[in-house]
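> call design_seq(struct)
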C-alpha cells in the first residue's frame, strides 16, 4: 500500500504531533508491503531516517494550510497514493483520495479558550469538512475516541484506536555521572522535579509552580523545578508568575528539549510531574515511565488510561494536593521503588509497531472504501 502522510508537523521544532508523525511514518514504512511518502510544503531540516520504503516529497510553499488545500491533493495523486494520513487531523476539503484523520485531542472544540483565536479560525471550518469527508479516524486513545463519538455520533463506525508509541531509546539508565552532568546543565547542580512539554495555559504549569512553592516553604532543600519545553501561546503569564515567586532561584526554564536532551532530563529527574488540564494521550508521561522516573500526573481520563497503576495522580486544580502527591513521590521510599519498577512495564505497552499495525488497518479499510 502506498501511504501519503501530511508531515507538516515535522517542520521546525518537533512537539507531540511531530513525535507522532516521525514514529508512525517510520513504523508504517518498516511494515512489509508499505511505501510511505512524507509530504511537506517546505524541505525538512531534520528528516527522519528510514529504509527505502520511506521517501520525502517537499515543495517550496510558504503557507502550510494553503498548500494542504491547493497543492497536496495533486501531489499525492501523482505519486499514486492509496490513502492519505492526515497526521495534523485536518485534510484537504476536495479530492478523491481516501482520507484518514488522526485525532490527537478535541480541546479546540471543548475548550477553545486554551487555543489561539487565529488558529481556531483556520482549524474549525476545515475540521467540520474533515468530519464529513474522512473515511476513517485514528484516535490516539480510548478517551479521545469516546470524546469524538460523543461530539460527532455520525463518526462512530469510522473510528479506530491506535495509541501512541514510545521510542526504544527511552529506557532506564543508572549513570550517576550522566545525572550529575544533566543537573549541572539544567538545575545549577541540584536535584530537580521535571515538567516537559509545551509551555502554555492548558498544561497548568502555574499550579505546579504553586505546589512546588509549598514544598520549598516547608523545606527549602527539596529539589528544584525544571520546566523544559518550547513556548506556546500566552506564555507571558507564566513568565510573570515565575518572576514574582519568592523561590524563583529554584525554578529553571530549560527551553525546548530535543529527544536526546529530553532523555537525559527524564533519567536525572527525581520525579516527573505532568499537571495538564486535558490531554488526548500524554506522551511525556509514557516517556518518563519508560525511563523509570516516578510520575505524578493530573487525575484526568487520558492520563489514567496511559499510566494505569504506574503513576500517582492529583486533581489538576488543587495545588495543595499536588504538593502532597509530589512529596510522597519524593520521600516515600516504597512508593518511589514501586513506581520505578512499574513505569517501564507500563510504558512497554505502547509501541510504534502496534500503532502502525492498527493504523495500517484503518488505511487499508479507507483505501477499500467504507460504507458510512
Amino acid at each position: 500500500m502506498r501511504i501519503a502522510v501530511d508531515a507538516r508537523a515535522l517542520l521546525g521544532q518537533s512537539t507531540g504531533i511531530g513525535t507522532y508523525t516521525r514514529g508512525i511514518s517510520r513504523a508504517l514504512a518498516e511494515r512489509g508491503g508499505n511505501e510511505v511518502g512524507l509530504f511537506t510544503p517546505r524541505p525538512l531540516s531534520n528528516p527522519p531516517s528510514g529504509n527505502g520504503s520511506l521517501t520525502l516529497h517537499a515543495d517550496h510553499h510558504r503557507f502550510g494550510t494553503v498548500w494542504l488545500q491547493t497543492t497536496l491533493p495533486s501531489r499525492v495523486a501523482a505519486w499514486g497514493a492509496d490513502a492519505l494520513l492526515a497526521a495534523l487531523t485536518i485534510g484537504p476539503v476536495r479530492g478523491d483520495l481516501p482520507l484518514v484523520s488522526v485525532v490527537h485531542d478535541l480541546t479546540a472544540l471543548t475548550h477553545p479558550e486554551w487555543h489561539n483565536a487565529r488558529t481556531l479560525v483556520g482549524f474549525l471550518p476545515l475540521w467540520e469538512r474533515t468530519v464529513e469527508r474522512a473515511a476513517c479516524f485514528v484516535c490516539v486513545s480510548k478517551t479521545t475516541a469516546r470524546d469524538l463519538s460523543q461530539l460527532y455520533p455520525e463518526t462512530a463506525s469510522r473510528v479506530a484506536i491506535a495509541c501512541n508509541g514510545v521510542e526504544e531509546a527511552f529506557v532506564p539508565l543508572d549513570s550517576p555521572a550522566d545525572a550529575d552532568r544533566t543537573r549541572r546543565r539544567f538545575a545549577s547542580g541540584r536535584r530537580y522535579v521535571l515538567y516537559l512539554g509545551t509551555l502554555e495555559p492548558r498544561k497548568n504549569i502555574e499550579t505546579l509552580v504553586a505546589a512546588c512553592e509549598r514544598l520549598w516553604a516547608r523545606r527549602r532543600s527539596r529539589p528544584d523545578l525544571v520546566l523544559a519545553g518550547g513556548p506556546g501561546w500566552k506564555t507571558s503569564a507564566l513568565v510573570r508568575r515565575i518572576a514574582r515567586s519568592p523561590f524563583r532561584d529554584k525554578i529553571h526554564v530549560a527551553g525546548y528539549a530535543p529527544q536526546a536532551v529530553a532523555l537525559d532530563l527524564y533519567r536525572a529527574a527525581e520525579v516527573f510531574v505532568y499537571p495538564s488540564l486535558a490531554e488526548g494521550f500524554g506522551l511525556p508521561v509514557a516517556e518518563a515511565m519508560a525511563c523509570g522516573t516516578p510520575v505524578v500526573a493530573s487525575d484526568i481520563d487520558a492520563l489514567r488510561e496511559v499510566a494505569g497503576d504506574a503513576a500517582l495522580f492529583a486533581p489538576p486544580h488543587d495545588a495543595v494536593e499536588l504538593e502532597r502527591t509530589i512529596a510522597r513521590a519524593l520521600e516515600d521510599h516504597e512508593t518511589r521503588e514501586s513506581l520505578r519498577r512499574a513505569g517501564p512495564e507500563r510504558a512497554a505497552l505502547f509501541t510504534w509497531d502496534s500503532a502502525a499495525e492498527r493504523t495500517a488497518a484503518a488505511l487499508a479499510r479507507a483505501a477499500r472504501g467504507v460504507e458510512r
